[in-house]
Automatic annotation (TrEMBL):
It comes from the Bacteria. InterPro entries: Puta_zinc/iron-chelating_dom. This is YkgJ family cysteine cluster protein.
Amino acid sequence: MATWQCVKQCGACCYLAPEERPDLEEYLSPEELQLYLSLVTESGWCRHYDHDTRECGIYEKRPSFCRVDAIEYEQRYGIAPDDLDEFAIDCCREHIADIHGDRSLEMIRFDRAVGKPRILRPQADR
Ligand code: SF4
Ligand code: SF4
């Protein structure tokens, strides 16, 4: 079974543009939504995301909605702890595909790290 983990030098989930995440109100409280929106810069990236290191500048103090853990996911998304890995892996793959691309180095590194076989979209006929 694949086990979720975050990989370094990715940062795809720190692109917070609300237009890319139309369901925010479904899983954030009004206070969290306010906090979330306060993090978004004009470019759509989180103000705490360091583009040089590709790391969170407030990692230890990052908001709860940035954390992947069983209790958080069960309460926020209704995901049973046994399904956390699969759900979190799918979320990361979606973010990575959007930001870096389906066949990017980041996607390859992520798939290797979580031990998930690569799922590639079929190429269009030439
Ligand atoms: S998208 Fe996933 S792997 Fe990439 S930085 Fe976010 S949590 Fe880590
Ligand atoms: S607070 Fe940190 S982990 Fe959360 S979106 Fe911003 S940079 Fe990413």
